[in-house]
Amino acid sequence: MNIIVTGTSRGIGYDTVLELSKNNNNKIIAISRDMAGLEGLKQKCYGNYGNEIHIISYDITDNQTKLKNELKYYESIDILINNAGLLINKPFLDLSIEEWQETFSVNLFGVVKIIQSIFDKMIKSEYAHIVNIGSMGGMSIAQKFAGLSAYSGSKSALTNLTECLAEEFKDYKISTNCLCLGAVDTEMLRIAFPECKDSFQSEDIAKFICDFSLKYAKLFNGKIIPVSFTTP
Ligand SMILES: NC(=O)c1ccc[n+]([C@@H]2O[C@H](COP(=O)([O-])OP(=O)(O)OC[C@H]3O[C@@H](n4cnc5c(N)ncnc54)[C@H](OP(=O)(O)O)[C@@H]3O)[C@@H](O)[C@H]2O)c1
């Protein structure tokens, strides 16, 4: 399996790559901006499991030429896990248009760009799976939190995109699903909500993301799945 994961220098993406690297049949492409974080991840995957992963320092909001060039030797891509994300916690009235644009650039347009860049490789997979990492805050019926209007708005758009792509791509044997996570103990949560104590461990969520991504492309398509103990 050729698997791309974005947002892998830390947090959930980092743990997801580590989990995937336990199986040497997984050829992992790990994307993030922070090269030091990626190098550390590469060493850990190799040291722990002997799995040589391909790291790419890339900003998902950048133009697609660099990414296409880095991926030119891959004939097909089987799984894309769109995990990179940005959360700006600010009251609506203080959020600048630039901050709204930045949030949507990473959480929505970055996803659009990557999918468009690798679509020709995904259709060559026997059965491909796009897994978008959403948020409970992006589900229309879930509880909302002050300060998260841009973040939740962008994640809500991501869930809608998931449903649209499921329809557009179904004849290409590409499933598209969205996992809407509750609170997970990572840098993002610790900075945005330092008082939050009731959260999942990133390693546990990473195991679930891997399991879902690897096994369920043929059973789920266009599904927006809450991964949370709380009822929306
Ligand atoms: N933690 C939670 O409670 C929680 C809850 C619901 C949903 N989520 C979602 O889960 C995903 C992972 O979150 P996390 O908690 O692990 O966050 P995190 O600790 O802040 O990590 C975010 C990752 O995204 C990468 N990233 C950010 N902007 C990027 C860009 N422009 N290009 C490439 N990579 C970029 C960062 O790497 P670089 O800085 O190296 O680029 C980093 O590796 C996000 O989509 C988030 O919205 C998290």
Category from helices, strands and their pairing? alpha/beta
Identify low-pLDDT runs: none
Shape: globular
Q: Could you give the count of β-strands?
A: 9
Give average pLDDT, whole number.
96
Helix residue percentage: 40-55%
Instruction: List SSEs in N-to-C order.
Output: EHEHEHEHEHEEHEHE
Sheet with most strands: 7 strands, parallel
- Please identify the top-level CATH class: Alpha Beta
- List the domain count as a whole number: 1
- Strand order across the biggest sheet? 3-2-1-4-5-6-9
Query: Can you list the ligands bound to this structure?
Result: NADP nicotinamide-adenine-dinucleotide phosphate
Q: What is the level-2 CATH architecture name?
A: 3-Layer(aba) Sandwich
CATH homologous superfamily - what is it? Answer: NAD(P)-binding Rossmann-like Domain
The N- and C-terminal alpha carbons lie at a distance of 34 Å
What is the number of helical segments per DSSP (H or I, 4+ residues)?
A: 7
As for the CATH topology, it is Rossmann fold
Strand coverage percent: 15-25%
Radius of gyration computed on alpha carbons:
17 Å
